[in-house]
Amino acid sequence: MAHLPISAFLEQSSSIPILDVRSPAEYQSGHIPRAHNLPLFSNEERAQVGTLYKQTGRYEALLQGLDIVGPKMRNLVETASELAVDRQVLVHCWRGGMRSESVAWLLNTAGLQAHTLVDGYKAYRRAVLEIYQNPLPILIVGGATGSGKTEILQELKQQGEQVIDLEKLANHRGSAFGGIGQKMQPSSEQFQNSLFAVWRSLDLSRTIWVEDESFSIGGVQLPHEFWEHMKQAPVVVVEVPRALRVQRLVRDYGHLDLVKLAEAIQTIERRLGGLRTQQALQALEENRLADVADLLLEYYDGSYQRNLERKPKSLRYSLDCPTDDPRTNARLIRKFVANNNLHSNLTPI
C-alpha cells in the first residue's frame, strides 16, 4: 500500500478509480470529480461513532465502528473489486486517517492494491484553493445580456481556443432567470472542485477564455483567488445590436415555463421598478415576449455597464459585432485579439 501526496494521487486517478470512503453527506457536500462514494459509515453511523468518541474516547468508538463495519466488509471488497482497474484503487477519507487506512488494509488483504491519499480530502481542497495563487492567462468574453457570450465561447473552443464554461459547471446562466430549466446547482465546494479539474487539464502557457461573470453564479461562488484574477483580466466586450439581443432572449427563454419566468421577474422588482415590473408581467401574460425582453434589458444593460466600469479602462476593449452569429463573432474576437496583441500582454506562467 502506497501513501500518495495529492499531486501523485491525482496523476494516478487518470487511470485508477478513486474510492471516497466518507459518508454520503460528506461526499454530497463536495468530492473529487469522478470519485465513487464507498462509505464506510452511513450519515447516522458516522454521527453515532463521533458522539461516542467525544463522550467515552477513542477505544469505545473504535469498537463501535468495528461492530458497524463487520457486516459490510464483504460488500466493500466486492464493490471495490468491480470498480478496480488492474486490481488497483485509490482510497481517501477526510484527513487520511482511520477510515481510509482501514478500508485500504481490508482491500489489500483481499488481493487488491489500494493506495491512500496523504491528509485525505483536506489535501485536495488545499490544492483546489492554492492553484490560483500564480498569475493566470485569462481573457474574458464580455457583452450585455443577450449577446450570445456562451455560444461564442463554444465557438472559440471549436476554433482551437482553450475555454472554461463557468455557467455549465454551475448549472446556471447567471441571472435571475439563469436557473430556469437547468439541473440542480452543485454546492460551491463541488463547483470549485469541478473548476479545478478543468483547470488542471489546460495548457497554462496558452490563453484561457472565460465568460464575464459575477463572483456568484446563481447560488455558487467562484474561488476568491480566481475571481481576483478575473477582475484583473482583459475583457473583450462584444457590442451586439439591441434588437438582435432581444430576438436571442426570446429564442433562449421564450419556451420556458411562464410561471417561473413571472416569478423571476418578481424577484428583481426592486431593481426593475414597480411600473416596469407590472408592464413586463402584463406583456408576459399576453405572450408579447419581445416586449418582455426589451423591458428587462432596460435594467440589465444599465447593470452590466455599471459593473463593467469598475474594471480599469486599460483592460476594457470594445468590439462592434453587427451580427449575433456566434461563429462569426468568435472569429472577429480572435482577429481582434491578434491585431491588438492581447495574448502577448498576458502574464506568462
Helical residue percent?
40-55%
SS field, number of helical segments: 18
Look at the structure and give the CATH class of the largest domain: Alpha Beta
Order of helices and strands: EHEHEHHHEHEHEHEHHEEEHEHHHHHEHH
Structural class: alpha/beta
Overall pLDDT metric: 92
Shape: elongated
Strand order of the largest sheet: 1-5-4-2-3
Would you tell me which CATH topology of the largest domain applies? Answer: Rossmann fold
Total domain count: 2
Number of strands: 12
Give the name of the CATH architecture of the largest domain. 3-Layer(aba) Sandwich
Describe this structure in words.
The chain has about 350 residues and is α/β, with parallel strands linked by helices. The chain has two domains: about 5-130, Oxidized Rhodanese, domain 1; about 135-345, P-loop containing nucleotide triphosphate hydrolases (Rossmann fold), CATH 3.40.50.300. About 55% of the residues lie in helices and about 10% in strands. The chain contains 18 helices and twelve strands. It has a five-stranded parallel beta sheet with strand order 1-5-4-2-3. A five-stranded parallel beta sheet has the order 7-8-6-11-12, sandwiched between helices. The chain has a two-stranded antiparallel ribbon with strand order 9-10. Helix 8 crosses helix 17 (about 325-340), helix 12 (about 240-255) packs across helix 16 and helix 13 packs antiparallel against helix 15. The chain is elongated and about 70 Å long.
List keywords for this structure.
349 residues, alpha/beta, Rossmann fold, five-stranded parallel β-sheet, 12 strands
